Amino acid sequence: MPWKNGGGTTTEIAIDPPDATVGGPFRWRLSIADVERSGPFSAFPGYERTIMVIAGRGMELAVGDQPPHRIDRPFEPFVFSGDAPADCRLLEGPIRDFNLMVARSSLRSRLQVLRLDAGSRGRELPAGDVIIHCFHGAIDLAAPASGPATLRPDCTALLSAAAGGARRSQMTVAGGVATVAIIELTPNRGSIGDG
Fold this sequence. Notes:
With 195 residues, the protein is mainly β. It has one helix at residues 161-164, and strands at 9-16, 28-35, 39-40, 47-55, 59-63, 69-71, 78-81, 86-90, 95-103, 107-117, 123-124, 129-136, 139-143, 147-151, 155-159, 170-173, 177-187. It is built from one helix and 17 strands. The protein has a five-stranded antiparallel sheet, with no helix packed on it. It is globular and about 45 Å long. The N and C termini lie far apart (36 Å).
């Protein structure tokens, strides 16, 4: 789909609620963008944004009146406010980036990237609502609510705290090596639904 400002294209992985649009409002949105040329990013007031380069040589991102931040290490997240204007300068040609946006009024997020190999022990995933995206390799998931599943490259799993009850989901590498993003979503204190 086109960017909100029309300056590029994005593959939307998931959005919450599912019937929301990029024009909002939404609680969170996960996407992969193809950035073909330097220029401004779309504005998303009220949202915290996390971005990381997943292909290409990287970019410099100038947010508001802050000095430009160099984003040229693959799978290294950078967090910034959607309130301020953001302008990107590509370093050496087009890139692909992985984007998470969360509504600051209701959620907090934490994105980490893990590189795992077949020798890695199984990992217990964080409690709460979790999104897992597989970039390379494959991982086996054992989720209390849905049973076992294999997550392959470019696939995403949404795990709900409500569906899992007190038991946590488990993740292991399905042979070889794997690169995955794990996103934790937690309600802000005092937000709706935070009992």
